Amino acid sequence: MQIYFIRHAQSENNHLYDIGGPVDGRSEDPDLTPKGEKQLEALRKFFSPSVDLPINKLDTEKDPQNRLGFRFSHLYASPMIRAVKTGWAVASLFNLPLQLWIDIHETGGIFLDNKDEDPIILPGKNSNYFTKTFPGILLDEGITYQGWWNKPIETREERPTRAKRVWDRILSTHMPDDSIALFSHGGFYNHLLTAVLGLYPLETDYVKEKFFFELNNTGITRIDVDFEKEKVRILYNNKVDFLPNDLIT
């Protein structure tokens, strides 16, 4: 089984952070920036078939750098709009539905910082928005007409547990020949990769304190799982060589 973790293209909040903007100027569910849209174009081009072969004939197991292209069986995206737009742009290349998966959202959830007061909790986009904006998209059962969040900010202690839950679901519900893509976020990536590698007890939050796995916007990490040998291999991490220098963020 192959798992491709793809971080979303640059968001408005990413740009705000890069220029040292105020925290209280961030959006609870930011859209992509113009630079993010350009990154998305480059990502689509990179994922476009590079050889004249039926997609099901690509032996990506023997192509560790995906020089011949990509073959996907399942596409999942966080319901945060920056991840949805990134996944949606890629889904059309492979004629596959995009499945929203709440559990791969960014750490914290949907909220707005409120200066010296408690953060403002918000629900996120609702089911009506998704079905109208992205026809054919598959909704997680937790996405309703009221949204999908609208609960307290996710604590640090809850994040590793969620990552382990995602990893366990991938292993238990997918077949050895599956090739899946997760369109998600940099913060959650650290928790998921930590769970994959078993680097710390799940009740301990070492992320950002002891180590950090950098993942640029539209960066790709490939993880292969050999069920027979019970072995996990990371073939590449944070692949962004398809981006020109001025689009690496």
Concise account of the structure shown:
Helix 5 (158-173) crosses helix 6. With 249 residues, this protein is an alpha/beta fold.
Describe the structure.
The protein starts with a strand and ends in a 10-residue tail after the last strand. It has a single domain (2-247), classed as Rossmann fold (3-Layer(aba) Sandwich), CATH 3.40.50.1240. The longest helix is centred in the middle third of the chain and has 16 residues, at 158-173. The chain is an alpha/beta fold. The model has no long low-confidence stretch (mean pLDDT 91). 28% of the residues lie in helices and 18% in strands.
**Rg from alpha-carbon coordinates:** 18 Å
The largest sheet is:
6 strands, mixed
As an assembly, this protein is single chain
Determine the number of helices (DSSP H or I, runs of at least 4 residues): 6
In the CATH scheme, the class would be: Alpha Beta
Strand adjacency order, main sheet: 3-2-6-1-7-8
Give the uncertain stretches in residue-range form.
none
- Determine the CATH superfamily: Phosphoglycerate mutase-like
Instruction: Choose one word for the global shape.
Output: globular
